[in-house]
From TrEMBL, chain A:
<dbReference type="InterPro" id="IPR019615">
    <property type="entry name" value="DUF2487"/>
</dbReference>
<protein>
    <submittedName>
        <fullName>Uncharacterized protein DUF2487</fullName>
    </submittedName>
</protein>
<dbReference type="Pfam" id="PF10673">
    <property type="entry name" value="DUF2487"/>
</dbReference>
From TrEMBL, chain B:
<keyword id="KW-1133">Transmembrane helix</keyword>
<keyword id="KW-0411">Iron-sulfur</keyword>
<dbReference type="Pfam" id="PF00355">
    <property type="entry name" value="Rieske"/>
</dbReference>
<dbReference type="InterPro" id="IPR014349">
    <property type="entry name" value="Rieske_Fe-S_prot"/>
</dbReference>
<dbReference type="GO" id="GO:0004497">
    <property type="term" value="F:monooxygenase activity"/>
</dbReference>
<keyword id="KW-0813">Transport</keyword>
<keyword id="KW-0560">Oxidoreductase</keyword>
<feature type="transmembrane region" description="Helical">
    <location>
        <begin position="13"/>
        <end position="38"/>
    </location>
</feature>
<comment type="subunit">
    <text>The main subunits of the menaquinol:cytochrome c complex are a Rieske-type iron-sulfur protein (QcrA), a cytochrome b (QcrB) and a cytochrome c (QcrC).</text>
</comment>
């Protein structure tokens, strides 16, 4: 379910079936690394949309969590924890953070369910190769999510 | 007297002709605008074009997952949407193409998951369907998987829109 009124009305009606939220992490910078920053955000946004599309009956795709690249890890975590607290309070059991930003890969944020994927330069990929790459990557992420569902349901 | 009458008729004549021409011009201007305004609505009703998806030789009695792209129009905005179909040959040889969108809340089902062999299984709430897409009672889905419009031309399977089936 997407962050739009139509889907959220459905979410409130079918709440017993929806226990998962995905949050795309989208960095911002205006310096010489801007292109790379945009690519990281775009890459993860495309994947998040596709994940939502395939698992829409059980999850809500939250609006992206945005942050300046210059924001300290501590600050980001503090804000993210606040998001998490809010979401959990609504009765959601699973929260997955999707990111292509290396910052989140380097440090071990074991308190959060972080799914990290390297930002592939999709703008250089041709139609078929791009589709195949996206399809495969989406399948991998789906696996991570559905496996954690199974673990806890048994 | 007769002159005056003549004037009136001439004025009337001009009136009629000008209204006529003006109306014609107005219609000429408005029609494209009206068409432009309602066109997206008309287009949405049109069934999408059929897309080539797989060659017939590739098909077996086991459903195969195939992806293809269709052009969608949302208002004025046109975009490509990736679709998935499970395509196979039924016992009688007919080709069937199923949409994997779960009829419960819309998740994408998978064929032949190791834990659920020879069935479609929905990862979200455990919905299950038989090979021909019939929902298995006692699982959440209220209806069978939708079936794609299909045609075969020169050994290639073309798919169109997916529809719910009547009955079943
Ligand atoms: S969406 Fe498939 S079982 Fe609920």
């Amino acid at each position: 379910m997407k962050w739009c009124t139509k889907d959220i009305i459905l979410f409130n009606k079918e709440k017993e079936f929806v226990d998962t939220v995905v949050v795309p992490l989208v960095p911002i910078s205006w310096d010489k690394n801007m292109t790379a920053t945009v690519r990281e955000g775009e890459h993860i946004t495309i994947l998040a949309r596709e994940i939502e599309h395939q698992l829409m009956g059980r999850m809500v795709e939250a609006p992206p969590f945005t942050y300046l690249k210059s924001e300290s890890m501590e600050e980001r975590m503090k804000r993210l924890k606040l998001w998490e607290k809010n979401i959990k309070e609504s009765g959601i059991g699973y929260i997955f953070y999707l990111t292509s930003d290396v910052d989140w890969n380097q440090k071990n944020h074991n308190m959060l369910d972080m799914i990290w994927l390297p930002a592939v330069p999709l703008e250089h990929m041709e139609g078929k190769a791009r589709d195949a790459y996206l399809d495969e990557t989406v399948q991998d992420i789906l696996k991570v999510i559905t496996e954690s569902w199974q673990q806890f349901s048994e | 007297m007769s002159n005056k009458e003549h004037d009136v008729t001439r004025r009337q004549f001009l009136n009629y002709t000008l209204t006529g021409v003006g109306g014609f011009m107005a219609a000429g201007m408005l029609m494209p605008m009206v068409r432009f305004a309602v066109d997206p609505l008309l287009q949405n009703k049109k069934t999408g074009k059929m897309v080539s998806v797989v060659s017939v030789d590739e098909l077996t009695d086991q459903p195969q997952r195939k992806t293809f792209k269709v052009k969608k129009v949302d208002g004025w905005h046109e975009f490509e949407e990736q679709k998935i179909a499970y395509v196979f040959k039924k016992k009688n040889g007919d080709i069937m193409a199923l949409s994997p969108i779960c009829t419960h809340l819309g998740c994408t089902v998978n064929w032949n998951d190791p834990a659920y062999p020879n069935e479609y299984h929905c990862p979200c709430h455990g919905g299950r369907y038989t090979k021909t897409g019939i929902n298995i009672p006692g699982t959440p889905p209220p209806a069978p998987l939708h079936v794609y419009d299909m045609k075969v031309k020169d050994g290639t399977v073309y798919l169109g829109d997916a529809h719910p089936r009547g009955g079943a």
